[in-house]
Each structure stands twice: as structure tokens, then as C-alpha cells.
């Protein structure tokens, strides 16, 4: 193994989870992947004249696929510069004809001049220190009405401590273990116009292996990586992430949600939930 390869491997191992996802340009999907995005597009009334803001867009998957399905315009914002570069690269390769724009900024403090019809959150709200404050901030980007598209995880069983530690070490987060009622209440100031709670079918080792192989091979092709040693380091790290996420899904479910903001009603709730 040459010195340059050794140094590159060390750099890859030192990357944070977010940096690694951006480096390999992993399509960081919401819970439910493209199926969730399809539900958002239908039940959230996303049309070709819709203006979408995607919060914590990472490598840009959700906004890109919403635009592909509906023709809507999308602005994605993420605090990680490497993620924004990866999102722009994916636009050039997979969505050059789509109306996509990306901004490297902190969504908690950045001020957008324009208004939006929809805001995509996916499961990102759980990563903000003050989710209620963030939601209150986001409503300012609507005119008199708008929709929030979310897909939060919630706990259905106690997550073993060892798995929590693995998740913190490998992915850099503490996994969602809050019950459904807690997660739903975060959105209590908005009207739920559509919701579908989902259980997660675990992936097989063969499915995870194919996904990992295809993703890492694409990364190597784009970056002209020919070293088998580097390929294996990339493969092992992504497969470990996939394995831990898959194991977590034994203890989690998620909800596909479309939430409505109406200026004349917010923050009141006059409709019964059921």
C-alpha cells in the first residue's frame, strides 16, 4: 500500500458521518424513501408551480425527486458545505433539467427573501436542538398558507443500550426512541391533513450488500478511485452504517405526514385529531 493511499484511507476514517455521506454522495432518503415522496406529492398537492424549501437537504434526494415527479421548483439548504456540493453534483448528473438550487447555510438563522408553498422536513426536525422553535421560524416562509412534508421516526420498543452506543459512535446521533404521541405533539400547532403510520420491513444482507456495492462503485467511478484498499474501506464503512440502521428499525416506525399552515388558524387547533 502506497503512502498516498494510506493517507487517503486515514482521511476517510476521520470523516464525520455527514462528511462521509457527502463524500460518497449517498442518496440520503427520508424514512420510506421514494414511496414517502410519492405520498407527499399526492396528498400534499405538490404541483408544477409549487415552490419547495427543503430543510437539511443533505445530498438533495427528496427535493430532486419531488421536482422529478411534479415539475416543482426546489431550494435546498444545508449547513454542511460538502453536502451542498454533492447535491449540486447530483443535479448535474441526475436532474440537469430540473429547477433545483442549493444554499450552504444554517436553516435556524438563514433568512429567505421569497415565500414557499411547501417545506420538506422529512425526519430532520429531530436533529434540531429546539424543534418547536424551528417550526415556529419556518412558518414565516409561508404566505397565508402552506404545507409541511414530514416523515418522523418514533419508538415502538426500547432500543438496547449497546445499539444506542453503536449509533452514536458510527452515525453520530442518538436514535429516536420517543413514542408516537410525543412526536406528533411537536406539530400540534399545524393541522394534520394526511398521515400514514408505517412499520419497517428489515432489509436482508443481500439487499444491503447490493446497495452498498452500487453506491461505492459509483463513488469510485466519479472520483476516479482505482485502489481496491480504498474501495474496501468505503464499502465497510457504508455497510456498517446500513447494518446499524437496519437493526434500529426493529425498534422504530415512522409516519408520513402532510401538515397544513393557515395564517387565520395557527397556532390553534379546532379540529379533532380523529
Would you summarize the structure shown here?
This protein is of the alpha/beta class. Helices cover 43% and strands 18% of the residues.
What would your notes on this structure say?
- The chain has 274 residues and is an alpha/beta fold.
- The radius of gyration is 19 Å and the shape is globular.
- The mean pLDDT is 95.
- Helix content is 43%, strand content 18%.
- Helix 1 (3-14) packs parallel to helix 10.
- It has helices at residues 3-14, 17-24, 33-43, 61-70, 81-94, 131-138, 161-170, 180-185, 205-223, 228-248, and strands at residues 51-55, 73-78, 100-104, 118-122, 145-150, 153-155, 191-199, 252-262.
- Strands 1, 2, 3, 4, 5, 6, 7 and 8 form an eight-stranded mixed beta sheet that branches.
Order of helices and strands: HHHEHEHEEHEEHHEHHE
Number of helices: 10
Query: Would you tell me the structural class of the helices and strands?
Result: alpha/beta
In whole angstroms, how far apart are the ends? 63 Å
**Major sheet size, sense and barrel closure:** 8 strands, mixed
* Total number of beta strands: 8
Rg calculated over all Cα atoms: 19 Å
Uncertain parts: none
Q: How large is the share of residues in beta strands? A: 15-25%
Shape: globular
Percent helix, as a range, is 40-55%
Mean pLDDT: 95
Topology, element by element:
Blueprint: H1 3-14, H2 17-24, H3 33-43, E1 51-55, H4 61-70, E2 73-78, H5 81-94, E3 100-104, E4 118-122, H6 131-138, E5 145-150, E6 153-155, H7 161-170, H8 180-185, E7 191-199, H9 205-223, H10 228-248, E8 252-262
Helix pairs in contact: 1-10, 2-5, 3-4, 7-10, 9-10
Amino acid at each position: 500500500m502506497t503512502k498516498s493511499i494510506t493517507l487517503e484511507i486515514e482521511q476517510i476514517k476521520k470523516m464525520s458521518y455527514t462528511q462521509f455521506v457527502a463524500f460518497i454522495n449517498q442518496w440520503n432518503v427520508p424514512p420510506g424513501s421514494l414511496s414517502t415522496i410519492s405520498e407527499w406529492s399526492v396528498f400534499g398537492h405538490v404541483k408544477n408551480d409549487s415552490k419547495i424549501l427543503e430543510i437539511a437537504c443533505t445530498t438533495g434526494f427528496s427535493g430532486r425527486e419531488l421536482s422529478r415527479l411534479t415539475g416543482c421548483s426546489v431550494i435546498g439548504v444545508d449547513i454542511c458545505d460538502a453536502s451542498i456540493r454533492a447535491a449540486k453534483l447530483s443535479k448535474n448528473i441526475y436532474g440537469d433539467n430540473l429547477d433545483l438550487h442549493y444554499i450552504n447555510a444554517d436553516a435556524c438563522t438563514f433568512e429567505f427573501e421569497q415565500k414557499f408553498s411547501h417545506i420538506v422536513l422529512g425526519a430532520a426536525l429531530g436533529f434540531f436542538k429546539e424543534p418547536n422553535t424551528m417550526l415556529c421560524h419556518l412558518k414565516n416562509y409561508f404566505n397565508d398558507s402552506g404545507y409541511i412534508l414530514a416523515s418522523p421516526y418514533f419508538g415502538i420498543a426500547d432500543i438496547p443500550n449497546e445499539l444506542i452506543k453503536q449509533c452514536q459512535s458510527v452515525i453520530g446521533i442518538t436514535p429516536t426512541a420517543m413514542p408516537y404521541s410525543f412526536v406528533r405533539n411537536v406539530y400540534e400547532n399545524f393541522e394534520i391533513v394526511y398521515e400514514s403510520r408505517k412499520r419497517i420491513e428489515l432489509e436482508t444482507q443481500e439487499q444491503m450488500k447490493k446497495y452498498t456495492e452500487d453506491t461505492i462503485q459509483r463513488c469510485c467511478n466519479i472520483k476516479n478511485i482505482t485502489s481496491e484498499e480504498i474501495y474496501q474501506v468505503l464499502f465497510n464503512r457504508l455497510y456498517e452504517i446500513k447494518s446499524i440502521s437496519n437493526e434500529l428499525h426493529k425498534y422504530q416506525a415512522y409516519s408520513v405526514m402532510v401538515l397544513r399552515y393557515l395564517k387565520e388558524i395557527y397556532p390553534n387547533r379546532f379540529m379533532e385529531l380523529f
